[in-house]
Fold this sequence. Notes:
Elements (H helix, E strand, L loop, with lengths): L1 H6 L2 E6 L13 H13 L7 E5 L11 H15 L5 E4 L5 H14 L3 E5 L8 H14 L4 E5 L10 H7 L5 E6 L8 H9 L4 E4 L4 H4 L8 E3 L7 H12 L3 H25 L6 H8 L20 H11 L9
Parallel strand pairs: 1-2, 1-8, 2-3, 3-4, 4-5, 5-6, 6-7, 7-8
Helix pairs in contact: 2-3, 3-4, 4-5, 10-12
Amino acid sequence: MDQLKKMLEGCYVTIPTPFHDTPDMELSVQALRAYVRFLVDSGLNGNYATLLAGGAAGDFSTMSFEERLQVAEIVVDEAAGAVPIAMGAQTTSTLELVRLAHAAKRIGVDFIQVSCPFYFAHTEADFEEYVRAAADAEPELGIIVYNTFWTSRDLSYSMVERLAEIPNVVGLKWAAPRTDAMEFEDVCSHFSSRFTIIDNNLFFGLSAMPSLGARAFEVHHCNFWPEWGIKLIDEVRTGNYAEVTRMLVEEGMPFYKLWMDIERNYTSGDGYLDKLCMELIGLPSSRCRPPTRDIRRTHHTATHEMMKKIGVPRLRNSP
């Protein structure tokens, strides 16, 4: 388990899932392989990253069970051991979670990502049984618990304490509502020696400090600018937290501001802006499956201007 925790350190990169522009929007195997190859060839190896196959930005919520496994199999095969792999295992069913855990172990991923079931407002005791079912099903598989408080229950400090009792829960992808109780800092400071904390709150310059101890960071930029993620981890490792904060403000914030503008005014989901940014550096592209709408025409210019402003390399001329 200590080795799995160490492997998880670095950028946590959710790979978007590409589809064909057909009525059924079938999975584009060739494009997915191109995505993985681009990330690995650009330096996102085991020293710098973990790749997440079929997470939220990977359209897990619109894919069948079989498609989710196919995506993970392709990512594992194309990465060929160069980088650790996590598989998204969010579901509303404990029985399906156990099936996903068994499949993940068979496929050869290192971790599964689990969050509290959505739709119903489940109790923390429900969630504890849910996680334990996956952990017991595959005790050598690393489990990353993701606190998706915006769609389901927010995990309390005492819930995190109980999760710490499960040996193969090795990662905590942590975000928390912002209040004066400083829930984000409280959990990081107390549990960073037990879990690899993945900062999903964009507090990188703060969370990476020894007093909080985060060692992994959710980085969308890696999908279209892998070198940005590599530099981020290098700066974290040298303790240059001022530079980490500058990177987030000057090069990270414009991306997230555009994303939030799209969320408020056009469509909702995850991964659609990553995909458009990837298209603008020459990678294959696709829309996300509906109900998320296609942003490639409506937000092409704004996205190109944002990428030019922050200095993304390989950016192609906008038509």
